[in-house]
Automatic annotation (TrEMBL):
This is Uncharacterized protein. The chain crosses the membrane at residues 40-60, 66-83, 95-113. The keyword Transmembrane applies. It comes from the Bacteria. It comes from Mucilaginibacter gracilis. Keywords: Membrane, Transmembrane, Transmembrane helix.
Length: 114
């Protein structure tokens, strides 16, 4: 009994595994599947930025003596998300900016609180 893996050369298996299952490829496939819901993702991004992320600089600067750069980073990310959503950018840009905002804010919280 032979399998498909036994019939394909090792080099081809390596190329397929590198190109087909990377995190970036999966992210882009997810983003492309969300294209019909672009307005919803823009609203989710805008509301979560305003409610969850904009208070973070006040918290970090008042309680944890963070520099003013925390405020600048938060405002840049907020307006980048706002402009990308209002400017008609594609869904990949909208979701990638939103994910980057989440990651950067979590990183800032970890740096200054821990």
């Amino acid at each position: 009994m032979t399998t498909l893996a036994a019939k394909t050369p090792l080099k081809q298996q390596t190329i397929n595994s590198l190109t087909g299952t990377s995190v970036w490829t999966k992210w882009l496939a997810f983003a492309d599947s969300q294209a019909p819901k672009k307005t919803l993702w823009f609203l989710i991004s805008l509301v979560s930025q305003g409610v969850l992320f904009l208070p973070i600089p006040a918290l970090l600067m008042y309680y944890f003596n963070a520099p003013i750069a925390v405020l600048a980073v938060t405002l840049i990310l907020f307006f980048a998300n706002f402009i990308a959503g209002m400017g008609g950018s594609n869904i990949r840009t909208t979701l990638t900016l939103f994910a980057a905002s989440i990651a950067i804010h979590v990183l800032m919280l970890l740096v200054y609180i821990l």
